[in-house]
Amino acid sequence: MAVSETVRGPAANVSANSPDGPPNRFRQAIPQYAAVSPFFILFAIFGAFPVLFSIWLSFHSWDGIGTMKWVGIEQYSYLLTDPSFWKSITNTLIIWVISTVPMLALALVIANALHNATRFRTFYRIAYFIPNITSVVAVTMVFGSIFSNNFGLLNAFLQSIGLDKIEWLSQPWGIKIAIASIVAWRWTGYNAIIFLAGLQAISSDIYEAARVDGASPRQMFWRITVPLLRPVILFTAVTSTIGGLQIFTESQVLFGSSGAIGGPGDGGLTIVSYLYDSAFGKNQFGYGAAIGWALFILIVLFSVINWRLIGGNDDERLTSRAARRVQRRIAAERAATGKADADAGKEHADAH
């Protein structure tokens, strides 16, 4: 027994230390790690580090050149009492509502029309998508001439039908309408193409069964198309929310050269515009970082609201609907039972 153990021990040591031993998994994976490392290195330098540095910067006062001074949460405390910041939030939300709601509704209608179209489908898809790939600066300049106070095409049209001209780019509400029009024009076709992809994923057998049951086109749209497109609607709502809360280029192109980044009365002052003006106009980089993180919190908040209103758990929705149906059935049965008992009691009383 001792002899066998003595012989087996050195043999095992030789096997473990010899080149024919088990391979090192980490060494085998080095080529794969090296192949994917450029992405992670670039992400760490240009993605992760700026994010982490902006968090650190938001707790400091820094003009971009001198020494950073630790101020703690003073930036965020001032942010909550800054009237310009709250005005930028109000402007951004108003522009977002008056641009996103009509845009998504019109995109859904266009997608439904394209889905039912029989001729020139490819042409219409390209035509509706072109605004999204057009330069936003060029589009904003064109819309700036359309909404121009003195020589705009829109005022020329109003005067041609006997109405007074409107100084669109001098009034806060006119500025918001102009910016919202630019946003809606650029993104309606993009969302329509996404809706169209969702419509094409719906089986035609569902519509055929609905037609056999006598459903009208309006009923099929509201009872079949819209519910089955709910995941796509959620996606477009969230992406439109993220983009709508980050509006910057439109107001910058319209009013960047006028000295007031938000235009007359700060009607076009958005959150990102205020961030840009604070950081790069006034060299308050710490305060600009605080505004950026406040914007991040707003985006997360409204994304969650959209998810709760439009998305949610399908199983929970089905369960709650089934529970409501059971409750209605029980209530109807109880009402019928109570009515039958009342009628029986009445007949018994009449018999005596």
Automatic annotation (TrEMBL):
Residues 1-23 are annotated as: Disordered. GO terms for cellular component: plasma membrane. It is a multi-pass membrane protein. The chain crosses the membrane at residues 33-59, 93-114, 126-147, 228-248, 285-307. InterPro entries: ABC_transporter_permease, MetI-like, MetI-like_sf. It is found in: Cell membrane. The keyword Transport applies. One of its GO terms (biological process) is transmembrane transport. Belongs to the binding-protein-dependent transport system permease family. This is Carbohydrate ABC transporter membrane protein 1 (CUT1 family).
